[in-house]
Amino acid sequence: LEFDLDLATKESQENPVYYVQYAHARLCSILRQAEEKGVQLVKSRDADLYLLAEPEEIRLLKQMGSFPTLIESCALELEPYRLIFYLMELAGQFHSYYNKHKVISDAVELSRSRLCLVAGLRTVFGNGLKILGLSAPEQM
To answer: What pTM was computed for the model?
Structure first.
C-alpha cells in the first residue's frame, strides 16, 4: 500500500476525498440557491417524483437505493473501501447530471422533484463521509 501525499492534498477529481466532498458541497449549494430563489423544498412524498424521468435521474435514484445494502455489506465483510468506490461513482454520476440538467428552472414542479433528488444525494454523501470519518463540508 502506497500513500501519495501530493494526491491527498490535491484539490481535483484525482483526489477521491476531495471529489466526494466537492459533490456534497455542490449539493448544499444547490439547496441554498433554491432557498434564495424562493423554491420551496418539499418532502419527497409531496413531490411528483415521476417527473424524474431522465436516464441520469433514474440512474442516480437506483444508485442511492443501493446505499443501505452496501453499508451493511461493507460492515459484514469488513470492506470499507467499497464505500469509497461507491461514493466516487455516485459523485461522478451526479457531476455529470449537474452539467447536463438544470435543477432549478421555471418548471416549479420539476424543480421541486429535482430538489428532492438533490436532498437525497446530500444525505447519502453526508452519511457516507461520516461513516468513513471524513467531514462533509457545505462549502468549498
So the answer is: 0.88
